Amino acid sequence: MSAGVRVLVVDDQPNIVDMLATVLRFHGFAVTTAGTAAEALRLARAESPHLVVLDVLLPDGDGFTLCRELRAAGHQVGIVFLTARDAPRDKIAGLTYGGDDYVTKPFSVDELVARVRAVLRRIRPGSHPDTGAVLRYADLELDEETCQARRGGRLLTLSPTEFKLLRYLMLNPGRVLSRTQIREAVWSYDFGGASNVVDTYIGYLRRKLDPGPPLIVTQRGFGYALRAGG
User: Fold this and answer.
1) How many whole angstroms separate alpha carbon 60 and alpha carbon 71?
2) pLDDT tens digits, residue range 142-156?
3) Least buried of 20, 100, 161, 181, by fewest C-beta within 10 Å?
4) Taking Cα atoms as reference points, which of 212, 214, 185 lies closest to residue 197?
5) Modified residue 4-aspartylphosphate is at which positions (predicted)?
């Protein structure tokens, strides 16, 4: 589990920022986002992230310069460059300026998460970012280590997909999640299955959570939220 690990995602393409934030939150990271170098520098100073996923080409500068500024200011944050620039000299430059890894676009989401975890293991060897933890919301408990979930102490019989769906909702309590966000996080970014798969599994999960007050709320026209009290 990555609870308590803060990641700053810096990219000027909103679709990439959205997708990365969704995936990293699904894996338990606390995510902040920025679209410019200036905003990223401000957030890095204010929030002291453990790791930055950093685009090289930004509207007001470049990631290499930002990386150098962070290192000069004494920030020991992990830095994973994310860029379309795949020439060997660019990779060497990124690592020379203080980057910890370099991922080129287009990229695999699973590979990026693996790279992020690998960098965190190197820079935070005693933190065990992948150790399991128990998520709690209202009378729900979800144990990531044993892959078990309970409501009011009652063990829920969930399929792996239902477990992943409940986990994603519990990582984002109260937040309205669109069907696209849920589909990308639970079924992967490039899922090509039925368009109503989210609605179907929300229905399955609601039935598994009965009896008890409803916890999964439909926000008509937007998506779903885990919200106690409706």
Assistant:
1) 19
2) 987 778 899 999 999
3) 161
4) 185
5) 55
